[in-house]
Structures are given as C-alpha cells and as structure tokens.
Amino acid sequence: MKRLKFNKDNIGLYLILLLSAILNFTNLSIEGYANQYYAAGVKSMSMSLKNFFFVSYDPAGFVTIDKPPLGFWIQTIFAKIFGFSGISILLPQAIAGVISVALIYVLVKRYFGKTAGLISALVLATTPVFVADSRNNTIDNMLLMTLLFAVLAFMKALDTGKLKYLLLSLFLVGVGFNVKMLEAYMIIPAVYITYILASKISFKKRIGYLSLATVVLLIVSLSWAIIVDMTPQSMRPYVGSSTDNSELELIIGHNGLERLGLGRNTGFGGGFGGGRIGNFNGGEFRRNFGNFNAQVNQGNFPRFNGQNGANPNFAGGNFGRPNGNRGGMGGMFGGDEKASILRLFSNNSLSDQIIWLFPMAIFGFLAELLRKRLKRPFDDGRKLSLILWISWLVPVFIYFSFTTGMFHPYYLTMMAPPIATLTGIGIVSMWEMYKEGGTKSWLLPLSFVADGLVELLILYYHYNTSNITKYIMLSVAVFSIGSAVVLSLMTFAKNGGFKVKKAMLTVGVIGLLIAPTIWSATTLFYPMNGTMPSAGLELMTGRNRFDFGGGNINSSADSKLISFLEKNKGSAKYLLVVSSSQSADSIIIKTGEPVMALGGFSGSDNILTLSQFKELVKKGEVRYVMTGGMDRGSNSEIMNWVRENGKLVPTSEWSSTNSTQSGNGFGGFGRDFGELYDLKGVNVN
C-alpha cells in the first residue's frame, strides 16, 4: 500500500477537510438537542433493544418515529458510547458531512484531476444547506454520505464491467432507503440512465445485471419494513404517521405520495408536513416572524384568527392564518412556493440554501460537453461520470422546482453533490478552453458573470437582513464580475499574461465562494431552528428560531409540571398523555419517562379508540392527561371524554404561568399547556 505523501495537492485536500470539520463541529453545543422529536426518539431507543429495533419515539414503545431506523440506530449507538446529549446525537451527521467532502474529492479526482476534485470538495464543504444539515440530527447528510459511497461502487462497476460492484452500489442505495426512505431513490434515475448508456459490456448483459441489482435494491430497501409489518401489532409500537399501522403504507403514503403532492397530507411528518399555518410564503415566514417569535417566547401568541393570546385554529389539521389563506408548513417552505423553473431562484427560504453555484454547475456541464463531445461509445469514466452527475442534478432540480408535495429546505442538500462536482469539473474545463483561445474561451468569463449576477440577486433578497450584505455584494461584484471583465479583456492579449489570467481565475472562484461560505459560517455563532435547519444571515437576527420541537429545552416551562407529575404519578405506566409529540419531546428528553403522544407526531394518528383508552384508564396505566394542542380525529373524542370525566388540576399546582392566557409550552407551536386532568378514580363505563 502506498504511503500517503504530503504533497501540495494533499495539503489542499487536508485544508478543505479541516474547513469542513470547522464548519460542522465548531460550537456544536449551541444547537442543543436540535430536532427534539428525533432526540426524544433516540433517548427512548437507548433504553431497550425493542425500542431500538422498532425506532420507538417514547420509552413505553407506544408509537414510532415516522422514519426508517438506520440513521437513528447510529445516533443511538453514539449516545450509548458517549452518553446521551445534544452533541452525541449530532456527531454522526457532522462526521458524515466531512466524509462526504472527501468522497466528492475522490470521485471527481479519479476522472477529472486533482484541481477539479479540490474545487468540488471546497464547494460542497461551503454549501449552506449541506453545513446546516451536518449540524443537525436530521439524517439527510447521513443519507448523502451513503449515496456517495454507492456512487463510488457504481463508478467501479462502470470501469470494470463487473456485476459485484453494481450489486454493491444498489445494495448501498437500499441501505440509504433505510436512512430516509424514498429520498434515497432520488439518485436512481442517474444510476439507471448512466448504466444503460455505458458500453463496456453488451446491452443484454447490462439489462440482466441491472435487473439483478434492482432485486437486491428492493430486498435491502424493504427488509426492515417487512419485518416490522410481519410483527404482530400487539408486540410493537404503532407506526407513526401511517394510516393503518404499517411501515409499507408509511413508505407509500406519508413518505411517498405526499412528497409528490398526492395523498392525505394531514400530518407534519418528522419535521413538518402537510399541516397548514400562517399567511406567509416560505421566505416571508422565515424572514418576518421575529416579532412573532418574541411574542411566543413571552407566552403570547400573536394575532391570527383570534385575539392576542389565542391559540391558532388547528381544526382539520390546518393552522389558521390571517386573511383565511392556507399553505403547508413543510410544504410552505417547499411545495407551497409557486411551482416554476424559477422557484429556487426566488425570494424564499430555498434559494439561499443551495442555488449559489447552480449556474456555474450548468456552465460546467456545457463546457465539458463542448470540450470532450459526449458521443458514443460511452466507454470511459470521464464521459459516464459527467452523465451521472447531470442525471442526478436535473431530475432533482425539476422535482424541487415543480413539486406541490411537502418537502423542507434541508432536503435541498440532495442537490449539493452534483452542483459541487459539475462546478469543479466545469471550472477546470473552461480554464483549459480559455487557454486554448477562440470562441470557446469566452465561456469562462461569461460563467463568472452569470453566476455572479445570480448571487447578487440572492443577496439582494437579504439586503435589509444585515448591514454586512452590502459588503458581501460588493465583494462578489468586484471579485467574480470584476475578474470576468479582466479575463475578457485579456483574451485579446495573445502573448504573455498567463500569471495574471491564472490569478484572475483564482479571484473569480474566491468571489463566487464568499457568499455561501459566509452563509455557512453563521451556523458557528448562532443556533439554527432545530426542526428546520438552515444557514444564513437570518440566524443573526434570531428570526428563524421559532420551533416545532427543536433546539434547547424550555426549562421554566417544564420543570414545575414534571415535578408535579413525578410526585403524583403513583403506579401509572405513563407519566402523562398528550395529544401529539410536540408536547412530549422535552419531557421525554428530561426524564426518560413514558409519555403517550396520543396522535403521534402531528396529533392526527388514530392509534387508540376511546374504548381502548378507557381500558388503559381502568387498568391504572393512565392517570394524567394534558388537553389542548393538535388533537384530531379519534383523539378529539378521547380528549373530549377526558374533559367531561376527569378532574381538572388547578393550574397553580403544576404551572408557574396562567395556562388560559399563555402560549408558553413544552417547546413549540401548538404546545400550549392547555389543561391538566387527573383520571384517578374515574368511573369507566
């Protein structure tokens, strides 16, 4: 095995990996537990092997997290090794981010050289949504790392023509499915298109190999879900966010059709979904609710449909909004933005997370296309790699541009690898054409101008967010567009000026990386919204921190309630029953005690009938119930029965605030304390 030499190029890679580590790990503790829904699940999973296998949200194994297991298994293992804490559950994603940067370098370097690999790695390391996901316990970057390993095996399959590497590649995609379900399949069009076009082996063999690999993909993808569904329902938790307690239905429904704008769209999923809130488009919501957040933190809901202090309307799974309009919360940040080719370039919560280098990536693809001519036979890795990356980027871009289904800004990390690779490939390719002269030499300065203008547009959207925006805009204009002007003028200098041209190339690249790097760096100093992680100048204003189960725990809100419940619980199995996980997250994290989220994550899961709930009361397993929040469907019937039959516990005994006038809660929207009822001694008919 060759010893690793510390040559110039290796030092460059190490510096980029160091930068990635700094962005991913520095001051990670400010994120608290990040997404508390997932954090509560990890704590519960660490308490028993049964909870671990079934991905139970609560210690009693009542309902599951609405995601597959692998990402949370890894977080749980880290929590067992290092102790349960915010940092221990965030570490796997931060590590996955750094590994992904290294993988991008390896994948690009193999066919396009070290310089292209270094640029690609640097672009990925400084992509805002990629950094945000690396600092959060959402599992998208763990999926991304898995898919990049799959690409590594896939390219080996193309190079050698051997079946075993193709099987390994789709095996790894199947593993990715068990990290984030159908999101893993976003890479499938690229894999199938590229393999079918590859001509190293006969077409008949390609179809046969691909068929075998597809069987492996499906077996690995569905293995855990089938095991869960084959387990008697009485011996496992209810499958959260499903309609019929089935993982397969969850795959097809909540994590499938709903992402395409089809299906019931009634729940939020593990980080928002189809629930509705507020008359804000994605960008306006994120940028303009500083006052909203402040009011909530003070214990008051701002005016929506009712008076100040009144909770929003949750009827039918829809949050009331001003003017009676509607839009999706997770969908609001994604699917509710106007569907068009310009969606990701518009003034919303999406554009500044991913689109900075998108124009350069497109120019990069076109440059390599012009330079090498994608003509048959497709028998070398360089051509096939280019096909793979553009076949990854285009379908994913189209999906995020036009889907009306629910998706969240942090899903955009799926666009980061192809943008990074095509940018690195393209800059090197355009530089080579620039040196050769002729008409094609104008492509490099043109790409700097086009990308610089897009970056200035995105920055303009944030002009009033911070005073530093104008300086970033000036830097981008001078560095990227200025260097393009100089490079254009120097095309007329037939002799000499090479060092100046190369310097201008470097300046131009730096200019394009200034804004996304600053966006990413904000996460080092300001905590993100735990449930909707994103990087950017809004973090400096604190406007993004209004949270549905994310970030730091509200100690003052929970302490007295927890103390009361622990003191009076008696022999009851459950410390408390609440309508949804929104009200249970922080209590589970703090105590490790069973808290029943009656309707799962969003409050819409119909897990128990009224008669089943009464039976639990009769057995003494349930004593205290907190009404309010997002109870819907059969859960509304249960909560109404609790109000009619339970004994109302005086607020002064369990809360330091007046629950009828406070929106203060366990950690987020819809988590108002409501009213606490004691069911001990209730006559159950």
Would you tell me the structural class of the helices and strands? mainly alpha
For the report, how would you describe the main beta sheet? 3 strands, antiparallel
What is the averaged pLDDT score?
86
Overall tally of domains: 2
The parts where pLDDT drops under 50 for at least 5 residues are 265-332, 549-553, 659-672
Count of helical regions:
28
Share in β-strands: under 5%
Relative helix content: 40-55%
Give the overall shape: globular
Q: Looking across the biggest beta sheet, what order are the strands in? A: 3-5-4
Please state the CA-atom Rg, rounded to the nearest Å.
Answer: 26 Å
Assembly category: single chain
For the secondary structure, the number of strands is 5
Distance between the termini: 75 Å
Question: How would you sum up this structure, described in words?
Answer:
With 685 residues, the protein is mostly helical. It folds into 2 domains: 8-31 and 66-226 and 333-524, no CATH class; 556-661 and 668-678, no CATH class. It is built from 28 helices and 5 strands. The strands form 2 sheets. A 3-stranded antiparallel beta sheet has the order 3-5-4, covered by helices on one side. Helix 25 (585-591) links the parallel strand 1 and strand 2 (595-597). Helix 1 (8-25) runs antiparallel to helix 5 and helix 9 runs parallel beside helix 11. The radius of gyration is 26 Å and the shape is globular.
